[in-house]
Amino acid sequence: MKPSVPFIVVEDRQNKTLALCRESGVLAGEQLLVLSRTDAGPAYERFCTSYVHLSSNSAEFEKICFRRYFLLAEFLDQNPNVHEFVLIDSDVLLFRGAGAHIARLVGSADFSGSIEQPTIAWNPCQISPHVSFWTANGLRSFVAYVLDNYAAPAGRDKLRKIAARFAARGVRGGVSDMTLLYLWAHTTGNGAPINRVLDGTVIDHNINRMQNLLPREFKLRGGAKRIVYNDGNAWLTTEAGKMTRVVALHFQGRAKMVMPYALRGHMRTVAVVTYALQIVRHGKNYVFRAVTVWRRMADLCGIAPASSEK
Questions:
Q1: Can you state the angle between helices 153-169 and 177-188, rounded to 10 degrees?
Q2: Single pTM value for the model
Q3: Which strand ranges, in their side-by-side order, compose the sheet holding 111-114?
Q4: Please, which pLDDT band fits residue 121 given cuts at 50, 70 and 90?
Q5: d(C-alpha 50, C-alpha 103), whole Å
Q6: What is the average pLDDT across 146-163?
Q7: Residues 139, 18: contact at Cβ < 8 Å?
Q8: How many Å apart are CA 129 and CA 132, to the nearest integer?
Q9: pLDDT of residue 308
Q10: Is the CATH number 3.30.2000 carried by domain 7-188?
């Protein structure tokens, strides 16, 4: 990976989140390219025809998440001089040294994405692309893998089994592009995580959680990872008290609203707002689990929904 490798955001919405992401790229000294097209070509149309919806999110949302890979494939066809790139979501803030850190991490891999180390009890089979390294060959291989899995009965059955595990646990989510990334990466030997600590530097998986790659890896302040700014760099603190430089922060979900405060160094505001968001999120997850359990019990007992006929 060369220092000039582009960071690419696939985003057609020109909103405040994207503007903050762009600003962070400038401050970090990284080349940031935004792909705003929505026409992903005939391969994406084939995908939509065979797509089977297996997620608690809307089908429209999941298809848009898959669409970015097809848009990237078309971009690579039109720009054959681009051999590798870093894909980031618009809810990511970059800091100085991001490109150099990723270059040291990836080696000769065709892909490296972000993952939370699974436990013995639960493996959601997901790799997040919010900060992910790709070669052109890797991206094209993944698109072909997605098309093959949704077109083939064996592939669809495999995905249904993963979705059933989410349903059995009463957990939101299910099958998404992150599922296909996990399956493809482990099939092709590209499972090394981009969010592992190397030389005291790390990429954030999800600012809302203590876990990064490892459980309870970093301290929290309020509802987000504890972040300290020093000499123009952002730092996380491990549970053992060791400072770790962070070169990309991921503001997943409603945490997007604190991106401007984090970029300006107002970390007390980040802590307070994310703590309030955490309480709301826990409440929603409790309701979702309760509804899932009730529906399962209703099915077992043969309780039919009330008729709307008078």
A1: 120
A2: 0.88
A3: 32-35, 7-10, 84-88, 128-135, 111-114
A4: confident
A5: 36
A6: 97
A7: no
A8: 5
A9: 40
A10: no
